[in-house]
Structures are given as structure tokens and as C-alpha cells.
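The record is passed on directly below:
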Amino acid sequence: MVFDVDELAAHAVPSSCWSPCKAKVYDITSFLQDHPGGDDIILKYAGQDVETVMKDKTEDEHSDSAYDMLDEYAIGRLGCTENIARDDWEAEDDFDSDATDPVEDLKKRRFMDLQLATADANSSKAYHLRQVNQPRHLTDSARLFGSDYLEVSTKSKWYVVPLFWLPIAFYLFLQSALQFTTPLPLFMVDPTLPSSGLANLSADSLFKTLNCFFIGNFIWTLFLFHVDYYLSDKPIFLLLHFLLHGEHHYVPMDRLRLIFPLPVVWHNIGRVYILLHHTQLPAYLKEMKKYHLAHHYKNFDLGFGVMSKIWDVIFDTVLPV
């Protein structure tokens, strides 16, 4: 298990005492009462790297057997604390991120093999989120699956999204509007929309349908803004988080993975992601492009807006750029 350095602060109490040493993390809670020097000295340095302390002759230099005993309490290792995203990042019109060396990245961060996107080891939720939100740049797309069929299903050209989903979205919108006018049979019974109903759509039914759309959009946006906070720390959920959206943060300039995989689910602003990342834009959208890139390269906890900052204003997550 790979842990993030920020997690250690939550384990600096008698009931949960962790300490790193030589990049390994140890849970020494059960050893507190047995420590020959008393538990006070351990708690004094709880959550901090104790390598220097254990070698300090003025404190109490530890023997080799002490290090052997310490290994019995190892629960994982400390992950890389260096951030790629930084607070002083500024977007430029011709912005292009530096290329990432996949071999060095894996060796240094021990998180993901960018040549075959598989985890090197299980990681804690905190370390997972830290690494997922540190953007890398590859000349080619990272490979997610060994199977060619599964692999191709994770990539989408920008035009595939509107071609596939706009007709479906339009059909469902009309079906919803008709439901407010007259009851319809189940889709499996009769998927066709009655032409008489379409001709008699009322303003009231369209208004109700639009209300449902905006309520759904609000719920979806609320979920996106807080998904990291409520994300489970179980490996299966961390994997799903990476596949559905984390990969886009991990390699944000990958032209073929700016949206959710088409066979899985559609990101309703996927085509906008394409625009903001890779095309020449009018002045307003150019500013929104800088704003969105700052979400990736400056502070992933703020600046969620893509086409507008309205939700960031509502949820108090506006990112100064």
C-alpha cells in the first residue's frame, strides 16, 4: 500500500500511531506500551520521519535488531510528495505540457505504468487522488487494457460523441415532453413517438421537461464537484474513478480520452472538452480554456466550470487565474 504524506497527520495519536522511516510506513500503535524508552518519545515524533531520530546518539541510537523489529509493523510505503500541478501555474495561449518519461515516472512515483496503465501497487485514497491529479503528458495514449477490443472502446474521436448521442438525447427529450402531455407505452412495447402528440406539444410540457433537465444537470454537477470527497477508499472504486474520469486528469492532453468511454457512459459536455483542449477559440472560450486548464495544472479542487463559471460561483469553487 502506498500512502500520502498528508495522511500521517491523522495517525499521530495513541489510538493510531504511524511513523515513516526510510520511505516505509509503520503502524506502531500496538508497540507503544512495549517501547523500552516509553511511549512519550514515539508520540513526540508520531507522523514524522523517524530515521534521523533513530540514528541520533543524543536521543537513543537504535540497534540493527530494533530495525528488524520495526519491519514487523510495516504497512506500506510513503509515496512521492512532489507535485506537478503548482499554484503559480499560468495558462498561455500556446500552452503545451512537457513530455513525461513513463519509466522515470513509474520509478519515482510508483503509481501507474504509463506504457500500460496498470497500478504498480495498491494505494490509499489520498495518494490515489494526489497522483491522478498530477497531470502527465504522453506522445501517445496510455494503454488501459491488454485486450485490443477493450482498448479501442476507451478512445473516442470528438465527432463520435455528437453523432452517437445527440439523436438519442433528442429522442429522450421529446419522449419526456410527451409524457407530460399524454401517457406513453413502455419503450419495449412501442418505442415510436406518436406524431399527433408531437404536433400538439404544449409550452407547459416543454417547460416541465426543461425543468427536469436543469434539475438533473444540477444533481450531476453536484456529484462531480464532490465525488472525490465521497469516493470510497476500496480498490474497486478507485479503479472505477480512474477509468471514468481520473484518466482524463492523469493525462489531460490525450485527445482520444477527453470524455468517458463511449460504450460505458457519455459525459454530456464531452465535445466541449475537445474544444477547450485542442482548438482555436473565440475570446470568451479562450478564457474558459485557460480556466479549465488551470483546474488541471494549478488546483484540481477548484475551477470545475467548462463553459461557464456559474456552478463554481454557486458552490464557492471559483479558481483565480
